[in-house]
Amino acid sequence: MSMxxxxxxxxxxxxxxxxxxxxxxxxxxxxxxxxxxxxRARENDTPSGSPVRVAGGSxxxxxxxxxxxxAAAADKAEAAGAAxxxxxxxxxxxxxxxxxxxxxxxxxxxxxxxxxxxxAVISVESEGSAxxxxxxxxxxxxxxxxx
Length: 147
Hints:
Elements: H1 6-14, H2 34-42, E1 53-54, H3 64-79, E2 84-89, E3 92-97, E4 102-106, E5 120-123, H4 133-139
Parallel strand pairs: 1-4, 2-5
Antiparallel strand pairs: 2-3, 3-4
């Protein structure tokens, strides 16, 4: 094994930078504006694909479909600038730490309770159908709206 001395290394450094290949073409750049990307994020037109997890000991169990729907809702909450959200899904009220995308527990909607510390409430669409105001009232423990 041959080692280069300090003088040889300095000589290599002093030789300057040489092109290894011929001139290269600049890489194509994405022409999508920042405003367009922000608009897409707000409209959830570009899902992050980041999953939501359930914290151990939270007492919450969700199936794959529910986790996917909560993940889509978390994308919208994040785009809106929310940090902690109360997620209403399939008759449950779940506490979501948006930044780390983690369900941290369940909130009781029975009786009179104050749930502080949330900067967003997200009602997640039922599987295969849009949530109605009656669904929201039912989840919040209210009465059915008059017809």
